[in-house]
Every structure is written in C-alpha cells, then in structure tokens.
UniProtKB/TrEMBL annotation:
<feature type="binding site">
    <location>
        <position position="143"/>
    </location>
    <ligand>
        <name>Fe cation</name>
    </ligand>
</feature>
<feature type="binding site">
    <location>
        <position position="139"/>
    </location>
    <ligand>
        <name>Fe cation</name>
    </ligand>
</feature>
<feature type="domain" description="DinB-like">
    <location>
        <begin position="17"/>
        <end position="147"/>
    </location>
</feature>
<comment type="pathway">
    <text>Amino-acid biosynthesis; ergothioneine biosynthesis.</text>
</comment>
<protein>
    <recommendedName>
        <fullName>Hercynine oxygenase</fullName>
        <ecNumber>1.14.99.50</ecNumber>
    </recommendedName>
</protein>
<feature type="binding site">
    <location>
        <position position="421"/>
    </location>
    <ligand>
        <name>gamma-L-glutamyl-L-cysteine</name>
    </ligand>
</feature>
<dbReference type="InterPro" id="IPR005532">
    <property type="entry name" value="SUMF_dom"/>
</dbReference>
<feature type="binding site">
    <location>
        <position position="417"/>
    </location>
    <ligand>
        <name>gamma-L-glutamyl-L-cysteine</name>
    </ligand>
</feature>
<keyword id="KW-0479">Metal-binding</keyword>
<dbReference type="GO" id="GO:0044875">
    <property type="term" value="F:gamma-glutamyl hercynylcysteine sulfoxide synthase activity"/>
</dbReference>
<keyword id="KW-0408">Iron</keyword>
<dbReference type="InterPro" id="IPR042095">
    <property type="entry name" value="SUMF_sf"/>
</dbReference>
<dbReference type="InterPro" id="IPR034660">
    <property type="entry name" value="DinB/YfiT-like"/>
</dbReference>
<keyword id="KW-0560">Oxidoreductase</keyword>
<keyword id="KW-0503">Monooxygenase</keyword>
<dbReference type="InterPro" id="IPR051043">
    <property type="entry name" value="Sulfatase_Mod_Factor_Kinase"/>
</dbReference>
<dbReference type="InterPro" id="IPR032890">
    <property type="entry name" value="EgtB_Actinobacteria"/>
</dbReference>
C-alpha cells in the first residue's frame, strides 16, 4: 500500500465519504420527522438513531482517534453505543431529534474534511493508506443498508424510487459449474481497506465442487413451496423446523398468496413475485432446507470465496470474480442504483472465469459456515466490530446485495447474521461436492 500515491487515497476517501453521506441524506429526508423517530420494527433502530450513530462513530475514529480532538458532545456517546442499548430499547432513549442529529453529523463531517486535507497516509495502522477513512465510509454505508431495511419494513406509502435493472433474456447457460479442487488463497493481507475479519490471506485446500451459476430464483423457490417444502420436516434441520412451525413461516418474508398468485411487498408497493429474480428475504433455515430438497447443499464460505476469486489461469486469487478492477455498473448490481435484485443471468461482464454470475451484488448469499476468525486473526481497530460475534451463533453471508455500496463489497468481504434473520437482503445459491 505504501508505494501508492497518498493523494490517490485522499481522493478515494473524500469520494467514498461523500457518496455515503449523499445516500444517508436521501434515506433520512425521504420521510418526515415522525417517521424518522418512529420504530418501524423491533428489529430495527429508529432512523434518527442510525443517523447520529453514523456521526458519532465518525467522530470517535476520525476526529478523536486519528486527529486527537476533544469530544464535541461527550454525553451522547453512550446513547449511540450499539452495545449499551439493544435496538428495541433505542426509541425510548433521549435521542437527538432529527434536526439536531443532522446538525451533529454535519458538524463532524465538516471537521473531518479539514482533517482529511492535512492527513498523512503513513505511520500507524489506522492512518496507513487512509484505513480509518475507508473504515468510516464502510461503516456509514453499512448503516445505509440497515436504514434501507428499515424502509422496507416500514408500513405506508412508497418513499423511495429507483429505475429497474435492465431486463435480460432468460438465462440459458449451464445451471452449475465445476470449481476444480486444490489449494486456494482465502482472505487478504494486501487490500488496503479490508476489515479485520477478512485478514490475513491464508491457503485452503478445497475439494472439487459444483456451484450454481446464478442465485436461486423466485421461480425455483416457488417449486419448493408448491412441492410442500414448508410442510415436510425431511428438508429442515431440527432447529429450522421448530422455528418455522413456531412462527408459522410458509414463504419468504413480505410474500403473500392472493388466490392463485404470489404477491410481495417491496418498499411500499405490492407486486407479483417476478420468477426470474433471485429469491430475497429468506433465512438461513429456508436456504438450507431448499438446498436439501434440491438434492444439494449450501456452499461453505471457503467454497463461495474460491468460486468468486479463483483464477484458473494463474492459480491465484483476484479481488472480484471479473478481475482486480473496482466494480462498475456493468459488473454488478450494487449501491442502491436499483431497489431490487436483477434477473438471474444479468451482468455477463461480471462473471467469473469459470462462468459463475452475480456473486457480487443483487442478494447477500447465505453460506453453510459459522462466522469464525481466520488463522492469524487480530482484532483491529476494535473487538466489537468482528471478534465479539465469532462463534456458532452467526452464519456467514457473502457477496453483497443491491443495497451494498462498492466501498463495502469485495471478494473477501464477510457479513454475518443469526440463521433466523430474513428482513436482510438475503438469498442464496446451492452447491454439491463432485464426489456426491
Ligand atoms: C457487519 C452488518 C453485521 O450492522 O451489525 C455496523 C456492521 N458494525 N456498525 C451490523 C456494523 C457496526 C454489522 N454487520
Ligand atoms: Fe455501527
């Protein structure tokens, strides 16, 4: 990283912070103040909490840790510490009202831009290659995705609009591809803004496996529903079966059957479920059950990453399925350009050398794996980002959704959640071992 011109990092940091703030502004001005302070779901914070939390984290890392400044409003730190108060409790806290939250985040940002102007991108691990600026931009974008989930859960008329992805012809390529067995480099030690849980790069031996060319579509998932998949305990793990029975889960979240038709609610609009689109809003248990019904399984996290990064021409690992270039609109559905996944088979320019499509963008993909540290993991810069979540409670999701910004999306990027969660923009693809 140190051989790269520091000015390039300054520009990249400025562009990433600005893109994130534009999105935050959109998500917090497209509804009125009562909608910002309301809790739309016990799973989510009020939007006004996310807004001030974004500013508070930016103040902590860029103004206090990097620039050594005094706290602007030390008394609010505890309100916006995600570990002090569970989401369900946040509406009853004395939160900054919308106008004050906006003013606070704006004040932090103006100071940050001054710091950025004079920042050196060498020295400590926090400042090297502008890491802290990149981390803060990724943090804001992650909360923007969280706020978009809140918008999806919110009842009431449509507040957000975006053009639909380009229609594509029905995908007629092979349904699966073989990923050859052998060693593969997983994770990274060189990507400047990669977060702690993506590090370090390490070798893994992966037996040969087949993986779906595209994410599982609504049409394919409907076949599982119509075949009685939700009524047959053979397809479900014991916990998964208990969970769907207890909560009467019979279809993806936001779906509803209307006579002979399946409808879904999407950002305030009810529409027919589009068969070609990757299935969205399923929990890990549903993804796992579908895969078993299909005679397949979920890919492990290492298999997913090998499918996304392995270059058979060199044996090395790339940053993205299409190579090392940063994601462009021709590669993947990212950045909330659209408010839905693109049809299966979209983005031929983003396919991997082996022909796997839509690994990046569209839907987060559940993997079979628990969220665990890589060998040699070191928490940086704080344990509460990743380390406290390691263990068997969380499953890993990969690849990012249409709601993920490119700054927070890489072939190595790891997301995680509880296996029951489905308000997130989650889908999946399936795999099978070659010898099975
Ligand atoms: C990585 C998406 C699980 O939202 O809980 C935001 C990201 N960490 N603020 C989350 C995060 C701290 C995190 N996930
Ligand atoms: Fe956060």
């Amino acid at each position: 990283a140190s051989d790269v011109d520091p000015e390039a990092f300054r520009e990249r940091a400025l562009a990433s912070l600005t893109t994130a703030r534009d999105r935050t502004t959109l998500l917090t001005t497209c509804v009125d103040d009562p909608d910002l302070t309301a809790q739309h779901s016990p799973l989510m914070s009020p939007l006004v909490w996310d807004l001030a939390h974004i500013g508070n984290q930016e103040e902590l890392w860029l103004l206090r840790a990097v620039a050594g400044q005094e706290a602007i409003r030390p008394e609010i730190d505890t309100l916006y510490d995600a570990f002090e108060h569970p989401r369900a409790e946040r509406p009853s806290l004395p939160l900054l009202p919308p106008a004050e939250a906006r003013a606070y985040a704006g004040q932090v940002r103006r100071r940050v831009l001054d710091v950025l102007e004079g920042a050196s991108f060498r020295g400590t691990r926090l400042t090297e290659a502008g890491f802290a600026f990149g981390m803060v931009a990724q943090h804001e974008q992650q909360h923007d995705e969280t706020m978009l989930i809140t918008h999806q859960l919110r009842r009431g008329p449509q507040a957000l609009t975006a053009p639909d992805p380009e229609p594509v012809a029905l995908f007629t390529g092979p349904s699966e591809v073989l990923v050859p067995g052998g060693p593969f480099t997983m994770g990274t030690s060189t990507e400047p803004w990669a977060l702690d849980n993506e590090r370090p790069a390490h070798r893994r031996e992966i037996p040969p496996f087949f993986i779906d060319t595209t994410p599982v579509t609504n049409g394919a998932y409907l076949a599982f529903i119509e075949d009685g998949g939700y009524d047959d305990p053979r397809w479900w793990t014991a916990e998964g079966w208990a969970h769907i029975r207890r909560h009467s889960i019979t279809a993806p979240l936001f779906w509803r059957r209307d006579g002979g038709q399946w409808l879904r609610r999407r950002f305030g609009v009810t529409e027919a479920v589009p068969p070609q689109e990757p299935v969205l809003h399923v929990c890990w248990y549903e993804a796992d059950a579908y895969a078993r019904w299909a005679g397949r399984r979920l890919p492990t996290e290492a298999e997913w990453e090998k499918a996304a990064r392995y270059d058979p021409a060199t044996g090395g690992s790339m940053r993205y399925p299409w190579g090392d270039a940063d994601p462009g609109p021709e590669h993947a559905n990212l950045g909330q350009r659209h408010l839905r996944p693109a049809p299966a088979g979209s983005y031929p320019a983003g396919e991997s050398p082996l022909g796997v499509r839509q690994l990046i963008g569209d839907v987060w993909e559940w993997t079979a794996s628990d969220f665990l540290p890589y060998p040699g993991f070191r928490a940086f810069p704080y344990k509460e980002y990743s380390e406290v979540f390691f263990g068997s409670d969380h499953k890993v999701l990969r690849g990012g959704s249409f709601a993920v910004d490119p700054v927070a999306c890489r072939g190595t990027f790891r997301n995680w959640d509880y296996p029951i969660r489905r308000q997130i923009f989650s889908g999946f693809r399936t795999a099978r071992s070659q010898d099975a």
